[in-house]
Structures are given as structure tokens and as C-alpha cells.
Amino acid sequence: MAFKKIGAYLVEGQTCDQQAIQAAVEKQTTLGHEGIYKPIGQIIVENGDLTPSVLHSILQKQGEDLLRSVELFKNLPQELIEKICGVAEYQAFPKDKTIIHQGDQADSFYQIISGSARVFRVSDDGVNVTLNTLEPGDSFGEMALLTGEPRSASVKTQEACGLLVISKEAFDKLASEIPEFSLALSKILSSRLNRGGVELVHASATEKAYQRFISKQSYGIEPKLIGRSRVVKQLQDEIKAAAKNDRAVLILGESGTEKSDVAGLIHWKSKRKEGPFLSVDVQTVSLGRSVDRPRKHDPIRLELAQSSALFGHAKGTLSFAPERRLGLFQIGDGGTVVLENVEHLTKSVQTKLVDYIQHGQFKPIGEQTSIHSSIRIIVTSSVDLNQEVLDGRFNKHLFEILGGSHTLTVPPLRNRKKDLRQLAEHLVEYHSRQTAKSIVGIDLSVYKSIMAYDWPGNTDELSAVIRRAVNLAQSNRLTPEDILIGTAPRGTDRLSFNLLKVDRIRRLFQSSAFPNSAQLATAFFFVLIVYLGFFGTQTPDNNVSLELTWGLWEPLVILSCILAARIWCAVCPVGASSSLISHKYGLNRNVPSFIRNYGGYLAVAGLGAIFWSEVVFNMPFSPRATAILILSITVPAVMLALVYRRRVWCRFLCPLGKLVGFLSRCSILELRANQNICNNDCMENSCYVGSEYQAGCPVFEAPFVLHNNQDCILCGNCVKNCANQVPVLNLRVPGQELWTFRKPDLTMAFLVSIIMGTQFFRGLEKTDYFHKYTAAQNQEWIFYSVIFVLSTSFAFLFIKTAGKVIFGSVKTSSRVTPNLLAYALVPMVVIFELSFHFERLISRGGQFFPTLGRQLGVDWDFLMVSMSPWWITFHQIAFILVGVFASRAVLKNILRLHEDPSKLRLSFRHQWPLLLLAAVYIYLFWAG
Ligand code: CMP
User: Fold this and answer.
1) Strand pairing of 406-409 and 249-252?
2) What angle do CA 131, 137, 143 make, to 5 degrees?
3) Helices and strands in the chain: count of H runs, count of E runs
4) Ligand 1 geometric centre to CA of 133 (Å)
5) Cα-trace Rg, the chain
6) Which ligand 1 atom minimizes the distance to the CA of 150?
7) Mean pLDDT of 226-237
8) Average pLDDT of span 765-776
9) Is the pLDDT of residue 377 over 90?
10) What are the tens digits of pLDDT across the range 571-621?
11) Which residues contact 616 (CB under 8 A, 6 or more apart)?
12) Would you give the DSSP letter of residue 410?
């Protein structure tokens, strides 16, 4: 820009001759060599060629001329320019002087008169990123003053600079008294926000917060709607039509769909393209510096926060946000403002919005005068607004205005699977660019798993999964190892308490002794059991390995599943040895997709085989069979560990792991993560990949994909690795995970059938009829096998038939809906298992000392623990009744999720399977 130097003013006004100026320039150069910077005017005054008051008036004139020539002030009347110059102070800065430090509190606003300065930011990982170079006419330092946040960046002179400095107090005064000044600032602000995604990656936390506050997505480049499906083409036509005029737009669609991109495209294609594009999520709107988000149940605060975000507030009107704040409707003048999740606007803000749409003016909170602005309003929602109106929660008038213009619906991802491949490719390319990686391909099996999933979190979820995959990728292709797909847990407001908040528990999970020392102890017992099984006596009453296994270990493991989920697997010596072997001698190959895809079925089949051999070989009374069982689990685990990475056996194939995971579904404990932090702030993924000191997740999971207890083994590696302390160990009301799934899993139906079938068998085995029939058989094991297969098949048929009756009216795939019943039956089946083993704990576990005594040749019979059979049966029946109620509650919630909740009433049609099963279980206990 044309900038008149001070010398020119002095010569023009004949206040000083050319020679004096020349002498001053030379002195300035000499001083510069010594590292001292002095402005020319000051040197001339020091040389006695000019009085300070004359210099002051010349600087004032220079400042005024400059202000008139810069964008920010050029349209202001003369008296305002004078007023601003009156509160501004001219200051000179040498080369390489940092004027603003990122993170500091704001005290001034700067206008560059001469020289140039660099705006840069140091990212969290220490990278110094230049954001811009500022020249005469540019200004800086307004962001922190307007938002109350700390400085978003540092500013350092590149050469000696002359600046007009306006103090915070003067700035606030100008901003509140001169609307044109505020508007001009708003324009600068929004142009700074309209930057491309690359820089946003490096944005400081302050600016990120600031971005969230006023502009979740500002487009420096044209947003894209990816896909060639019919629905996407139709949407593109609708976008074009909406961009042709200025009317309000309503965009509907499930959360996570590309509603913001659609809004961005409408803006981009409209004549407002050059204006600001700002968007705010009205549900989580922030109040600025001192307060983060309004608390959920504080409607007054929410209302103030929303009003202030949209319309702004005057200084001192809100006690919790004392600084003045500009509203979006002021900042976005000439552009587009998007209000996300509009249904969350409070009633009175809805009324104000109607008023603004109709009259184009508004009053900030605490201001007397109205402000005019021209904004195109786009609102988004993921609920049925019509219903909201009928329920009296949404302003009818506002709905009519919005619905009367353009209404666009963005389809969920599961209804446009045709677009998934293109979308995935686009996201891989985008995230590779962002992370400076060169991922060039995606394995076919990755596409398969992307296609097989329903993406309840829509494009946002897909983007998070791909961002993470790109991040994790070791080569230039994405493999199934990199893709961690999981359903975002719903209903995070559950009643729960994070045990990791308790210092001792956190320390335990973080200590290196956990779970190693416990693994040593369990390994000792396993070795003892195997030794006694092969080398000890085969007389059941004299071999303590049986009491240890069936009387203590098995019931206690089952109890531990209820109390502490899969924690047994964390201390299991089989898992520990496979980890050790894989680490020391393993080939560390990737897990083949066959194991990934079908491992679950194999594990269920293995469990069936264990249950079968348990009854056929009467394992609880055979020390050798018991030892063989333990070896049959250990040997494949170790062999697989030699070939594949991590604990592939524990994660995909271990039958006992499958059982323990199943029982843990009803646990009062869960390990989960705050997905928002994982998806937005974490780049290391150390929970999954591990760190220098600690291995990553041994079972190919990560806390952010966990939505049930089936796979996490509570080993604590993620707790040790995560620098953000994201994993939480919740004490919870059990059950929720049994209905918050989208698609019933077929393995669950098989698993429940096999466990339930075994339970029927165990019950039958105790009846007199059973004994009569077995006595008549020559080959007992054939009879046992037939009954075992029959009872398991019966359980499977029961689930299918009863499931069809209960869920007949649910409108999803008829092949899978009956399996929903399997989930409802889980509590009953788990409680049966618990009651059954309760009896074993007393009857077999109670024999531990007497048996040990017999083995050691001493009489410890007096140490026997027992309970009257009546008492045991009484407890078992009481357990089952609790199970009925728990299963009923789960059933109700599953139905609620799949049927209209308002019409739902549990009738006999829904409940008979539970009652029938309870009757059978009670009979079996009774008969036993
Ligand atoms: P503030 O956050 O108060 O302090 C640092 C200043 O750097 C900031 O205000 C803006 O004035 C300026 N700034 C931040 N980002 C940019 C950018 N991308 N381009 C130009 N100036 C910027």
C-alpha cells in the first residue's frame, strides 16, 4: 500500500530540512548496527532539529492518513478517525521483536504503519507454523480482545516496525461506541476464520475453542458432497436451487451426516460466497473465557449463552462472561450463519430468531440500540421438528418460516452404501494429506468391513475411523489391522462412577505390577493342577486339583465376571504366556481375515466342545481330563502366539474367553473412553499401538471402539499408555449394552443356545428320570451326547421361535430379528450360571481343605464348609427370580428401541418365553 514516511511530512510541512532528516537516517543506520532501533522522528527530536510537540502532531496526522487508507477504518467519518488516533499511541519496534506472545492475555490492539510482521503459532508438538505476514495497513491483536480468550498466535516483527497501539480499554470503548468499527473488525475476524483445513490442524487450543465458539466450519475451499448415488444427485440439485435465493433453509438428517457440508455448499454457490460463513451448535454453545459450556440443566444460562452467541452482549451485562461479545448475527453480516441442532434453541431465543428473520435487526443483550445485518440463515436438525411443534417444544411460527422455504434431507450413510467406497477413498486421501502420509491403497477386506457396517454415526464416524486408520497405518496401504470400527456408545448420561478417579485404583492400574504379579500366582496354580492331573492320584476325593479347578477357580471366575468383567483374562496365565512368547519369539504376522471373521464362531464351537466333553468325560471328577482341558487351551494359544501378533487366541478364539466375555455383559464394571477426545485430540493412539514402556492393547481393541464388555480384558495397558487419561473404568448399572446395539449378532444366538442348552442338560442330569435312563444304557457317552445335542438344539429353536413371536412386528430383516431375544435372555442365563456355580462353590469348594488333607495324609475334614441343600436351592430360586426381572427390563428396552415407545406395552405375547424359561430353571433347581 502507498505509505507516506515521516520524512515526507516533515519536508512537506517545511518543519525540518532535508539535511536534518539525512543525518537522522544515518544515525538510525549506525544504531541499527549496534542492535538499537530508534524511529527517525525520535532521533530528529534528540538531535534538537524538532520539538516533541511538533513531532506528536505530525505523527497524529500520519496516523490519521494511514487509518483513512486502510480497509478497517476507511469508511469512518473524520471525527471518528481523529477520535481513534486520539486514543492510539505510536510505538516503534526493532526487527525480530515479539510483540504478542501466543497464550498471553490481551492488552492492546495494533495497526501496522511501517515495516512488516510475521504471525505464527507453535503447535502442541513444538512445530512453528507461519500463519501470515502482515504489512502496513494490516492490523492484529483483535481476536483475543473480542473473545476474551488468550492470544491465538504470536506476532514478531520481520523488520523495524512503526505501530499504532490501541489499549484494551480504548479498544473496548471504540468497539462499543462505534458500530462501524465493530463491523469492520468482524470482517477481519471472519476472513481469518475462512482459512483452509491445513492451517486449522495447527490451530492452537485457544483458537480451536474460539473456532468451536463461533465457527465450527469455515470454508476456505469449496466443500464437497461425495457420492454418485441417486440420493446424492438429488441433494445436489436441491442445493443448487437453494443457492439461487436468500431464503432460510432447513437441513434435516441424522447426526453425523454431511449437514454442514450441505450448508457450506449452499453458501459457496450463492451470491454471498464472498461473505463470512459461520456456524454454531446451539446445543453446546459456549460463553467464552470463564465458562466453558452451559450446564445441561441450567435453562437460564443456556438461554443467555445462546442469546449472547447469536446476538452478542454488552460489557458487564453477564456476570459469568464479563467482557463484551459480538454476536454471530453481527460478525456474519453479508454472509451465512448456520444454527446446528436448532431444536435445542430455547423458546425465547426462538422468538428472537423469528423477529430477526422478519425484521433483519436485533439488539445485543444489554444494548439499547438495534443493529441491522443481512444474514442468510440455515438451520439443521436431526429430530422430527413437526413432532417438536406438536409437543409444544418448537415455535410453530419459526417452523412455518423454515419449512415454508427450502427443506433438504441428508440421507444416512446406510441408505447410500453405493457411495461408501468413493467416500472412503476421499477420506483416506484427505487424512493422508493432513498427516503428510502417502497412503495409496486400501485392502479389499477393509472395504468389506466398511461395507458390512451400518455406520450409525454416519460420515463423521467413518471419517474418525479412517483418520485413525491412516494414523495407525504402518505401510502405504490400509489393512484390516488399522481399521477399528465400533458403534459410538449411546446414552452417555448413564448413572456411572469412574473408579479411576479413586487414586489407589488408578495407581494399581498404572503400576507395572498389575497384572504381572497376579499372572505369576495364577500360573503357579495352573502348573500345579496340570501336574497333579497327570502325576497325582486319579481318585477324585484325594486330588485337590479338582476342588481347585471346579470348586474354586470356575465359580470364582464366574463371580469375577459379574464384579469386574473380563479381569480374569488379564490375569490368566495362558494369555500371559502367549503375550510373552509372541513378544520374545513371535513372527508377529498380521491376523488372517479368516480368524478375524470366523474366530467368534470357532470359539463358540470350542465352548460347545468343552461343555460336551465336561459332561461326557465327567471332567469335574477326573484329574487327568481336567489337566488335558487346561493344556488344550494353552497349547493352541502358545502356537498362535509364535506366528501372530498380540494375543490372537484370547481375542478371537479362546472358548473360555468367549464365555467370560459373555458373562461380563452383565458386569457392574466397564472400561470405556470419551470418544470425543479420542477422535478429535488424539494423534498417538498409544492405547492401541503402545508406547516405549508399555505394549498396546493385546486384544486388538482400543477403548474408543468399546461399546460392550465382550472383548476388553481390563489389562490396564491403555490406562498406562494414554497421556490424556481418556479410559474410564465405570461402575455402572449393568445391562445397557444389551440393548444399545444396532444389529443383533448371530454368534450371540449361538452362544446363548449353547450355554442355555448346557444348563438344561445340567438340570436334567440331576433328575431321577435321567439316572434311570443312563442306567439302562451300555454306552453312556452316546446317550449323554444325544441329550446334550438335543438340549442345545432345543434352546436354539426356542430362541428362534419365541423371538419370532415377540419381535414379529419389528421392521428389520426378519432373518435377524428373532436373535434379539438372545440378548434379552442374557441376564437369566448369566444368573443361572451364577446360581449353578454357587452350589459348586459350596459343595466342591467347601471340600478343598478335607481333600487337601487326604492328599497330604492328614485329617482336615473338620475344615469342611457346607450349607444345607435347602438353603442353596432357596438362593438359586431367588437368583432366578431376579434374573426374570432383569431379562424383562432388557426385553422392554430392546422393544422400545425397535418399536414405537409410546405404544409399547409389555403383554403376555412378549413375556411368556421368560416365564416359561424361569419355570424350567426353577424346576431344574428344585429337582436337583
Ligand atoms: P490475537 O489472538 O489477539 O493475537 C494474535 C493475533 O494474530 C490475532 O489476534 C490476530 O490478530 C492475528 N492472527 C491470528 N491468526 C491469523 C491469521 N491466520 N492471519 C493473520 N493474522 C492472524
Assistant:
1) parallel
2) 50
3) 40, 22
4) 10
5) 36
6) 2
7) 91
8) 80
9) yes
10) 999 999 998 998 889 898 888 889 988 999 999 999 999 999 998 888 999
11) 781, 784, 785, 788
12) P
